[in-house]
Write a structure and sequence with these properties.
658 residues, alpha+beta, Beta-Lactamase, Helix Hairpins, 5-stranded antiparallel β-sheet, 19 helices, disordered N terminus, disordered C terminus
Length: 658
């Protein structure tokens, strides 16, 4: 308790020898009772049914109890002045509990009362075991030793007074006193703190492991979890943590978490104190933000580079710890090996925990942790927790690697399946177009010649100048419809008939101007203002100009048909690196969203009398040139609402129509 029991017993004050007294703690102390006299209070018998053993000596009992239990004890009179002290309390508090000194004054100097010192349920439970299961009594007191250590005590006192005078002849006259005991509860308090700390650590480790194993996630997420667990106050409570990965013969930093300076620490820790997130909530917030929570520390981690082989690596303590596979504490000191010294200079740490993460003999990564801000020493217990955690973290990293491999394989299979489905669609389209081509050839052979004859006769009849209006109108209708059917047959044959491209060196700006010039009369007739904005420099490309003119012609024709009441048509050419872009924009009403997804489908049209092949042919021509065509709509109130963009590679030497 206070100290070891002294070998020599100290005499009790006069009046405490003889048989053990019978006392009545409820009786008030008589006025003027200043001392304990022989044959007084301590010669009385117990008031309860049991009899104290005959001949028992009160002095021996009291001294034996205090010395055996190591209790600091003293006795004060009815005025509160100290009458007697035992050796234990004099050894613990030399010169404080002097005889004749007021007891309250001595207690206040030795162990001042601390209102903030709350009862510790765990410590009290340990005290009960020391005192036969009874609940501990007395006020809690504490004192701070010069080294900063706090010792706690429980002050227990009981009042001894003469028994009630209601039973004359059995009671002896005597004086009252108070017996004080100071019980050192520091060992129980330390055990309680140790128990509580261990309970917190076990609970934290369990929660971390539950999170690690309850779901399979990516390697980066597991790395984030490991670092958050090491730095969270619900985890291991380090200031900073870094994750390093093996890349060949080097160990490179990959991730880092923790404040970069005291100002960051104050900001981050204040915010966390307000929100008080759990470990799971911290991980969820980290996954939602996506980026590193501490960019400066993350950037510092990326600068870590440690060689694992060579003469410099052989001398390094960190490399030896990693290859040895054991968690190690490294301290900054003079004349460190070059690798260790550079690492400490980079991180600014004074002590560093190095924890290899292994699965069998395979190194999965290395965890570094320090207390850069608080400079709190890293204890062996802290290192032991990290060592225990490292085994589970290594397993989690291996599971995440397998998960990443599986995910990548699934993505490759999905891409292959998507490509297969796309090829199947293209094959079906090719078969469909082949069938249409055969049909178109047959139709062309069987229908085209009669149509030409009918059209020729109708035009000849019109040229003869018939005077009947009905005849003229009928012949005009016949001629127009024959022309429409001939145009439809030509477009169908052009779309389905395979043909090789004839590549040539051309200036794209000239091809655009030539395509626009063919519609000069239609533009004027429809009141459309057309303009071309060429690139600043000539755009030279090797391609089939016939295919490009055909694609542009269909786009220009569609734009003219969309602007019935006039409008503006703008063509523009651009060059960016190895790509050229031609834009065709108009001020028409635009294309409805439900139509946009089908505009390149063959035979799909919203125009009366349209074939539905114009945009499909443009797309096919651009693809034959190795390019792409895309639609852009502008609903932001601008002048040009519909815009088609053709993107072509420059320098393509040959092409095969698909």
């Amino acid at each position: 308790m206070l100290s070891e029991a002294p070998e020599k017993r100290k005499a009790l004050p006069s009046g405490l020898s003889g048989e053990f007294p019978t006392v009545d703690a409820r009786a008030p102390s008589p006025a003027g009772s200043d001392s304990l006299e022989e044959g007084g209070l301590w010669n009385q018998r117990p008031p309860r049914g049991s009899e104290f053993p005959a001949g028992a000596n009160a002095k021996d009992v009291l001294l034996g109890l205090t010395e055996t239990l190591g209790l600091g004890a003293f006795i004060s009179d009815s005025h509160g002045r100290i009458l007697w002290t035992n050796d234990a309390i004099e050894a613990e508090f030399p010169g404080i509990f002097a005889l004749g000194r007021p007891a309250d004054e001595a207690l206040g100097e030795a162990v001042p009362p601390d209102p903030g010192l709350l009862p510790d349920p765990i410590a009290e439970q340990l005290e009960r075991r020391s005192f036969g299961g009874r609940a501990p009594e007395g006020a809690l007191r504490a004192r701070i030793l010069p080294g900063g250590e706090m010792k706690t005590y429980r002050h227990h006192s009981f009042h001894l007074a003469p028994a009630s005078p209601a039973r004359p002849g059995r009671l002896a006259a005597g004086k009252s006193c108070t017996v004080h005991c100071l019980i050192n509860t520091t060992p129980e308090k330390k055990l309680a703190d140790t128990y509580r700390t261990s309970q917190h650590e076990l609970s934290s480790v369990k929660e971390i492991l539950d999170i690690l194993y309850e779901s399979i996630t990516s390697t980066r997420d597991v790395m984030n979890l490991i670092l958050v667990a090491v730095t969270s106050r619900f985890g291991f409570g380090f200031n900073r943590a870094f994750f390093l990965q093996v890349q060949g013969d080097l160990l490179r930093g990959h991730l880092g978490i923790g404040p970069a300076n005291p100002a960051d620490a104050n900001r981050i820790w204040s915010r966390l104190a307000e929100s008080n997130p759990t470990l799971r909530e911290s991980l969820r917030l980290l996954s939602q933000t996506g980026g590193p929570p501490d960019p400066a520390t993350a950037e510092l981690a990326m600068r870590i580079c440690i060689p694992l082989s060579g003469s410099k690596a052989a001398e390094a303590g960190i490399v030896g710890a990693i290859k040895g596979g054991k968690a190690t504490l490294l301290y900054r000191r003079d004349r460190l090996p070059w690798v260790d010294d550079e690492l400490f200079k980079l991180l600014g740490s004074h002590a560093l925990a190095v924890v290899p993460l292994r699965i069998g003999q395979e190194l999965k990564g290395v965890l570094l942790a320090d207390n850069f801000i608080t400079q709190k020493p890293i204890s062996d217990e802290d290192l032991g927790l990290l060592k225990t955690f490292s085994g589970y973290a290594g397993i989690a990293l291996e599971r995440s690697r397998l998960y990443d491999d599986l995910r990548q394989n699934v993505e490759k299979l999905q891409e292959a399946n998507s490509e297969l489905q796309s090829n199947q669609k293209r094959l079906m389209q090719a078969e469909k177009l082949s069938a249409i081509g055969e049909l178109a050839g047959f139709v062309s052979h069987e229908i085209r010649n009669p149509l030409v004859a009918i059209g020729g006769l109708a035009r000849s009849a019109l040229a003869d100048g018939s005077e009947k209006p009905e005849t003229v109108e009928a012949l005009s209708i016949i001629a127009n419809e024959v022309n429409r059917l001939e145009r439809f047959l030509k477009e169908t044959l052009d779309f389905v008939k395979p043909s090789a491209t004839l590549a040539d060196d051309v200036d794209l700006n000239e091809v655009v101007l030539e395509s626009l010039a063919t519609f000069r009369e239609e533009l004027v007739a429809n009141g459309i203002e057309a303009g071309f904005e060429p690139a600043e420099e000539e755009i030279s490309a090797r391609l089939d100009p016939h295919l490009l003119r055909g694609a542009l012609s269909n786009l220009i024709k569609n734009a003219i048909e969309a602007m019935h009441g006039g409008g503006r048509l703008r063509l523009r050419s651009l060059q960016k690196g190895a790509l050229a872009r031609i834009q065709v924009a108009d001020t028409g009403p635009g294309i409805p969203p439900e139509v946009q997804r089908r505009i390149f489908d063959p035979f799909f049209t919203t125009k009366k009398g349209g074939t539905g092949l114009g945009l499909a042919m443009s797309q096919q021509s651009v693809k034959s040139l190795g390019g792409t065509i895309a639609l852009e709509t502008h609903d932001d109130g601008g002048e040009f609402r519909t815009e088609f963009s053709i993107t072509l590679p420059i320098g393509r030497k040959e092409g095969v129509r698909q």
